[in-house]
Amino acid sequence: MAALVVAREARDFREATTLRLTSGAGLEAVGAVELEEEEEENEEAAAAKRARSFAQDARVRFLGGRLEMMLGFTEEKWSQYLESEDNRQVLGEFLESTSPACLVFSVAAAGPLVASQEIPRDANHKLVFISKKITESIGVNDFSQVVLFGGLPALSLGHVSAFLDEVLVPVLSNKNNHKSWSCFTSQDMEYHIEVMKNKMYIFRGKMSRRTLLPIPTVAGKIDLDQNYSENKPPQSNERIILHAIESVVIEWSHQIQEIIGRDAVQPLLNGLHLSPQAELDFWMMRRENLSCIYDQLQAPIVLKMVKILTTKQSSYFPTLKDIFLAVENGKTLVPQPGISITICS
User: Fold this and answer.
1) Domain hosting residue 134, numbered range
2) Of residues 285 and 3, more confidently modeled
3) Which residues pair with 129 in a beta bridge?
4) Is residue 162 one of the residues assigned to a domain?
5) Bridge partner residues of 149 (DSSP)
6) What pTM was estimated for this model as a whole?
7) Could you tell me how far CA 286 lies from the centroid of its own chain?
8) pLDDT value at 194 more than 70
């Protein structure tokens, strides 16, 4: 009997000890969790404090106000942008950088505000860039005087084309800017400007799914009332015009052959299965493109170019005549009433 009592007491002691140990471990675990939560709260509070301090910077508030006006977003979206530590780092590097810096901001209709150092390739909405005029570190009070803001349209091709036509080409073509250059440098610059203009013009046509025939700049100097006699020796200016016309005729020939050479069954040969509507669309686009080319070939300046090649007995006249015939024959495959073409001979 005494042995049973001793055994029961020993068992109760072990259970009590276990309970006390388990309870103590639980308190330590709870304390560790509470400590972690407290540390997280402290970190969140510190992060929130840093975000508020950064947002109160006069330069940040100035940029936010201008971007809100140019991109049309709310003040809340700017605050949400500044909540991200990564965003604050990108903007902070721009503000403190002593080297040339530029940031491009964009915002979708229902998306967040995004900033990058390069223009996004897939942007389909308005962009705003911010660039520094100087590279030195500047004070807060002078910041608004040393940054440039600019907008880029959703389709940047029109922006680039306008810049090329209205700014770059006039500046580089201005003879007053060539005074310190040799005549060879000046002529080489004019040549590259002409090539650049033509490529941009052709590319702009492709973007609109049309074939645009570039006209040489010097052709604008052609006097439509002037007689270009066959026996009259060509003057220096006439020789330049003739060379420009002959050069562009070759370009036109390549463009026309690209259109005429397209085959409606080529996608089938490539293993694609197209519907009848796809073939109808092909012929419709072909007719519209050839009509666009026809209208360009009927322009007075083009007909004058034809006359010059004829009277000067240029070896490029047959090529130009082939261009007219190719357009005429191409339009015959897709009849369109009321259109004919006249070949100068």
Assistant:
1) 58-154
2) 285
3) 104, 150
4) no
5) 130
6) 0.53
7) 28
8) yes
